[in-house]
Write a structure and sequence with these properties.
The structure holds two protein chains of two kinds. By secondary structure, chain A is an all-beta fold. Helix content of chain A is 0%, strand content 55%. In chain B, a hairpin with a 5-residue loop joins strand 4 and strand 5. The relative contact order of chain B is 0.33. Classes of the chains: A mainly beta, B mainly beta.
């Protein structure tokens, strides 16, 4: 049973466009929802994260929207740049420390 | 500040051979994790540790063992490698704000 479902699997966006990646979770015990960015040959690195007490968090061009009742959260990348081309993973964690990751989205931003 | 360091970076094994992957962190984090990453499957938790001397099973623990004898080190062992264990292995440590810091990964091929 996959606890975190991520879509789409791949995404192609023109430079300057908006990239949107969605995730849905099942376990209501999750209380921390990070997004990680991974470049080829590197380990994932935290991009932005949110806790369920807020519905939106913005850091620069990156925004997380969180819908607790629907058990969904999404990453929006505004003014997408070629340097944003990477694989993005959503994740969900409990306070016990275990994290469950989505399958990843490969984003390509075309110049 | 090195963060999370994994050794080795690459390894090729024959079926049935054993090996140990080493993860070291210099951030004094209590929590440490071992994940495997396979194409299209995101990051799957193998084992994790909530502190020195403690370990626990994750999502895919079969065929792996771990040890956390020192707070800064988390070892992942393969006693009898199988082709199904061909993967990229990532170690991570977690801070008090739930942020996970990943190493650069170990690329393992089992022939």
């Amino acid at each position: 049973q996959q606890q975190v479902k991520q879509s789409p699997q791949s995404l192609i966006v023109q430079k300057g466009g908006i990239s949107i990646i969605n995730c849905a979770y099942e376990n209501t015990a999750f209380d921390y929802f990070p997004w990680y960015q991974q470049f080829p040959g590197k380990g994932p690195a935290l991009l932005i994260a949110i806790r369920p007490d807020v519905s939106e968090k913005k850091e620069g061009r990156f925004t997380i929207s969180f819908n607790k009742s629907a058990k969904q959260f999404s990453l929006h990348i505004m003014d997408s740049q070629p340097g944003d081309s990477a694989t993005y993973f959503c994740a969900a964690s409990t306070n016990a420390g275990k994290s469950t990751f989505g399958d990843g989205t490969t984003l390509t931003v075309k110049p | 500040n090195a963060g999370v360091t994994q050794t080795p970076k690459f390894r090729v094994l024959k079926t049935g051979q054993s090996m140990t992957l080493l993860c070291a962190q210099d951030m004094n984090h209590e929590y440490m994790y071992w994940y495997r990453q396979d194409p299209g499957m995101g990051l799957r938790l193998i084992h994790y540790s909530v502190g020195e001397g403690t370990t626990a099973k994750g999502e895919v623990p079969d065929g792996y063992n771990v040890s956390r004898l020192k707070k800064q080190n988390f070892l992942l062992g393969l006693e009898s490698a199988a082709p199904s264990q061909t993967s990229v292995y990532f170690c991570a440590s977690r801070d008090r704000d739930d942020i996970q810091y990943f190493g650069a990964g170990t690329r393992l091929s089992v022939l």
